[in-house]
Amino acid sequence: MRAFAAHLRWFLGEHDRPDSALRRPRALAATEALFADYFDALDGFDASPKAREASVDAARVREAVAFMRVHSDEPLTVAAIGAALGVGVRALQLAFQTQRGCAPRTVLTEIRLGRARERLSEPDAATSVSDVALMCGFAHFGRFAAAYRARFGEAPSDTLRRTRGG
């Protein structure tokens, strides 16, 4: 709930700014997908015992991860991933928690961070950190930079600067 509240505060503050990243279609789509996942998680928060018993095997979780890798540049929701595999949202969330110890959204974020690092490590002249963040599904640049630093031990701008030889 804290993460949802923080994202909502950011969205409301960002929404009316004329220079907002949310003016870019990819950023808005990424934000919509994130909020859809929050609402799906809240909807299944008090899942019935029957829903808790529903199982998704390890092969389906691997399929979900493979699907995320292929479609990581798209504004994915957990519902879309589940629909592509024929699995319910709550069952998929429970399977990831059981088999990987985290939510599907966490795995998607890791995949996207890896993709961002690849793009920052092989830049062209026009590559910018904000464009890479948006291409990889991150609309909130501050959260992207913090997650990138936590994962790779340096700021995304440092990776870009280093790979450009500067």
TrEMBL record:
Residues 62-162 form the HTH araC/xylS-type domain. GO terms for molecular function: DNA-binding transcription factor activity; sequence-specific DNA binding. Keywords: DNA-binding, Transcription, Transcription regulation. This is Helix-turn-helix domain-containing protein.
